[in-house]
């Protein structure tokens, strides 16, 4: 973690192209692609942050070791030698156990220094304390950290059409082997054809002061945004079916910003072409020119 915290407000946008894939399934709807009430596609901010974390974990330093430490990991993507069963074990190993005597500010500073995703997105450390035999004791400790990086859900520019596909599996856990069992039948869903999605985000320098989020951390986020979907293939998202078209990155050059994020995002939105490329992004004369970076 750098000792120099971020001093300038940043707004950004990412345009995505999805082709015959399920970009983000909804477990409450049979894992169908997420849609809004008006049938526009959606990729949640949680899913996007997961991909950012995964890409950050893949970055290596000059010694071919992980460059960034990430707190919220998944079971199928772990840092080398990380065998912790849950987040509490990972936190206790790095920061020590928490009790009602723990100093929240000291704990927060240690957590932010240890993990990039904590000082970027924030984190809540809720701990249920153990009670003594007499029924009295700690009431528990909850240490919230508010991060400076804000990510919105991505939404498709146009309405999407969801296509269901009936599938059969070659093996089952049930049945007598004579006829197909019920668990050999299933469904897959994808959106039909191509769809362009766009997400917006911002980085708040005031909150960066509290977590120690630095210019180097902001560049680390920028570096992985163009390759958001690399090494993220699955049966729902086949290789090449999802890609970043362009990333727009605007450094305001001031702590408070030249315009509100809402107005900057409107400029990005109005300049977005149907194919996911950004055209005219001209704003007020004193607004710095945004940088446009092609997808990986």
List keywords for this structure.
globular, 13 strands, single chain, 296 residues, 23% helix
How is this structure best summarized?
Helices cover 23% and strands 26% of the residues. The protein is of the alpha+beta class.
Q: Explain this structure to me?
A:
By secondary structure, this protein is an alpha+beta fold. The protein starts with 9 loop residues before the first strand and ends with a strand. It is built from seven helices and 13 strands. The longest helix has 14 residues, at 45-58. The protein has helices at residues 45-58, 87-95, 104-114, 116-121, 205-211, 215-224, 261-270, and strands at 10-19, 25-26, 32-33, 40-43, 122-127, 141-146, 149-151, 154-159, 162-168, 185-191, 194-203, 242-251, 291-294. The chain is globular. Strands 1, 4, 7, 8, 11, 12 and 13 form a seven-stranded antiparallel sheet that branches. It has a two-stranded antiparallel ribbon with strand order 2-3.
